[in-house]
Design a protein that fits this description.
Layout (H helix, E strand, L loop, with lengths): L13 H109 L5 H16 L6 H15 L6 H24 L6 H16 L3 H16 L13 H31 L3 H29 L1 H12 L34 H4 L20 H31 L7 H5 L3 H30 L6 E2 L12 E2 L5 H19 L3 H30 L3 H11 L8 H31 L9 H40 L5 E2 L5 E3 L5 E3 L18 H19 L4 H22 L9 H21 L4 H7 L1 H10 L11 H4 L4 H9 L6 H6 L5
Helix pairs in contact: 1-2, 1-3, 1-4, 2-4, 2-5, 4-5, 5-6, 6-7, 6-8, 7-8, 7-11, 8-11, 8-13, 9-13, 11-13, 13-14, 13-15, 14-15, 14-17, 15-17, 15-18, 17-18, 18-19, 18-20, 19-20, 20-21, 21-23
Keywords: Coiled coil
Protein name: COG4 transport protein middle alpha-helical bundle domain-containing protein
Length: 822
Amino acid sequence: MTENGSVAESPATSPLSALVQQWTAREDACDAAIHQQLQRALHQGREQSVRVREAAVLAQQGHDELVRLLELARDEAGRAQAATRELRRYDRRLRHAESALQLVRNLLRVRACAEGIRVALAERPPDIERACAHAETYRQLWSGSDNENGAARQGVSSMAAASAGGLVSLAPVEESIQRLQQLVREQAAAAAAAHKPSSSSTRSESILLWARRLRQAGLEAEARQFLVQHAVQHELYPHREMSPEAVPREWQGIQRLTLLYESVATALHRYSGVLRAEFGGDEAVSALVAACVQHCNQHGAPLVQQFLREERVREQLLRARAALEGTAAGTAASGDGEPHGAPPAIFADLSASMGSDIHAFIEPSTAGAAATSPSASAVGLSDTDMHRLDGLLERIAVIGRRTGTFAQFLRACDPTHPALTDMQRRDGTLPYAVQELLGYYVGLEDCYLQESVRRAERADQAPQWVEANTSGPRSTADAWTQRTSSLVDDAFFVLKKCLMRTVSVHDVNTLGAVLNHVNALLSGPLRQTLAQRVRTRSPSSALLSAQLMLGGSLKPGTLDALLVAINDAQVSAEYGGKMAARVLPAAMQEAQLPDTDKVMPLLAEMEGAAGELEVVAGRGLDALMAVLEEAVLTRAASQSRLDCEVSAVGGTERGSDGADRFVSGQRYLVSEAEYVAGPSAPVASFLAAITAGALDPFADKLVPAAWQQLVCRVSEWTARRYQRATLGRATRFNALGALVWDAEVRALTAHFISRAPTQRLRIREHFRVLSLAALVLNLDKPGEVHSLWEEVQSAGAAEVRGWLSRRVEFSPEVIQALKWES
């Protein structure tokens, strides 16, 4: 304690007192700041309250002003409605005035027309043209056709009311018009009677002038009928004088039918525009088309029936079928020097136009077809028969084509008029006659096809050799001038010619019927012939074994007949497919053939027949493959040590020929010193052997498609044999050996793909298992197979484990512990 009794401040309490003083000062400052902010907020609130009161006053003033404006608008709207009602009253009065004025004008014009008609008829001779012009004006006034607004039309109705009320008398006008109509009828009939068919445009213009006068006089239906009757009676063949060109006798009926169609087309072209211009709309044109259709049925059907009688189409069809069946078709011998009992000469021969190369007909870039001349047989049609048949079919095709295009032209002129149902439903006289003719055409075309294919079989010639070395024997460098027999080219030349001729007939039903015959021919006789050739030309096992024992290899020329049969079937399949997929659709589109959807199923059937021919070629390739497997492939695999079997003792390999060969260790346990990039020597030797013995000898003898099919079959055999020689045994691999094996698989695959690029997918499928195994064997660790599981899961988990177990570096425990994704 100090002397004065106070407690002395200790050094320990002085900092606490200072801290309290600081907190107290801060609290005072905060209280002052808060107080200041509250004062400011109170002041701002008072100011906001004043502003709100001012805004409320302004809003009330605006509301009062808006109410006053709405009242003013309501007053103005009432005044506007009153003005509108007044304007409507004035408008009605104006329309009444205009109607009255129009009535007066019409009455004045009617009086002028009546006076004009009376004066024109009073002249000697009567001025028909001026009277008709006045009559047309009167009709227009009475019908209101020359008025352009509602007031004018109302004036016309007022004129009718005035006439009905007796304000004006129209009886004299009607009487004058009736006299004019009678006079125009008489003079038009006299002009039509004096008219003669001629190409002079002056006479046609006079007829048009009288038709126009009839229409002006109020006889529109008679004018239309007058013009149509004139067009039919004086412009159409045979009424119209036409000088047909000099044609052979058998073409004269076709020429007359063509002139009939041409005259109808000319008349329609000449009068359609006039009828539309004079009468408006398509009713007059429809009447003309109906009259032309009736005229064609009347005069065209006898021409077609005369053609049937003169050509004796039905009798010729029956005789042709009898001749093809080998029966007697007539009682007397023909005048062409044929022996008694032979089929009568009734048709045509295609021997001059039947080519030995179809490429020029299907592909324009290929050289033209060489002609062949098959000799006539005792059973069938003679050369003269075939020659006449060809000409008859061409003439029938011309009739069908011109009739079809003419019917299409009529439908284009008037596609909706009922008068065309005769042409569309085929129940008119002319369409019925043409359909009867086309029915015979289908049968005749079938006979022509059958006989042409029979002739092609009889005249069949094998391909000729061109020796590369004429002084020595034939070698593998020799080539054929062509790779198929003449049967294929001759048969498909005829098939395409008949189909193109049928397309030109311009009738989809006829085309469908002929397509049925063609499909039956492709899937029947032609396929059977080619299949029989494949069977009979395959070398027998005894002959093959004798050649292999005596000569040690397959003799040249042993398989030539089989190769020709394979080529024939393969090319036939290609021609049939191309005909169905490209040639016929393009021809139908070019000919603008209607309703082509009807023949699409038949084209699909033709593609199916082509597929059957390809199956025949495949059977021939299977027979060829069996020969090559026994004579070439197995020996090549043995000689290249591709499939030697490891014996259980001594590390000795036993080849498939029974010879023992010593090898040191297994082929795919390769050290770094022994490793060489690329396939091993046995694989390289095997590829060289099969290329020289099984592929190259047939590259120039087989057509490309058959050659690639053969390569594909050899690749399948190779993949199967190589898989048996490696994966089929307990073969072990190290890392470098797996690389060698992968190179071998790649080399085999690339070798065959390079020779058959179009069969790339099939060849890769043959080597798919080997490729997957190579992919698995070249992994660095077994666990990496999980990243490839989507690619290799098709092989199965057990197979993949088996592949991994062949690697000497991989532990069996690790492989068994692998878990696969489901």
